[in-house]
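Let us practice reading a record.
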Amino acid sequence: MKYVPKLPDDSVNITKNNPVVEFLKMVTGIFVITAAVIFVISVASQLLSPYIPVKVEKKLGALISAPMCAGKMEEEVEELETILDKFRPFFSSKDKRLDYRICVLPDDTFNAAALPGGTIVFYKGLLDAMEKEEERAFILAHELGHFHYRDHNKRLGSALIYVLMATAFGTFDSGAAQTISAHTASFMFNRFSQTQEKKADLFALQMVTLAYGKPDGAIKATRKLKKFNKLNKFRHYFSTHPHPENRLRYIKEAAGL
């Protein structure tokens, strides 16, 4: 008898759905649910991060800063610590909660950052641009401003996600810890909002004026930031960092100049 191929019947044991389509639906569903969970955790952690206890913040900060500051430049650190000592008499009670630590990295990057726990990271590229003590004092005071307003802790939300994911998948070993600390550090170097940056600028202006008796360091440093700026005003409109011209304007206004 000759075989004649035919389509399957309508048996309940035979699915009518395309298995490839079903697989794609399943993958999409998992992705959407995972993304939603991460988003909720991120928002919640960033809302709660300003209230992180100082002890916890210091422990998290040690995890982040220890590998970064291993090759710090000692001579430059000593100079910045001398400047920091000039600010200490003017610290408020909230500013005294942390034991501030400075590290300078031998890199030409034009940046600085406030890390959890009280560590302030400078890159040599920024220090080379800010040649005068009073100019460096403004940059240092700016980072202290982020500590004053606890802006740095708001970056911990993303780091907490890495910790939760690594723990959930059982990969939180020493290698994972290093990866987490590296990712966290990169989040810390992301710019804050324009409002946070302006508040840190004005805090720095106040500290420099108190410590040096005049606001010249803030003005000179901001002018140099303008000189090294690579973005035009239009691009800064979409940036979270104020344009140097705007920074110079509101700093001079606040200084009464």
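A brief commentary: The CA atoms of residues 79 and 255 lie 26 Å apart.
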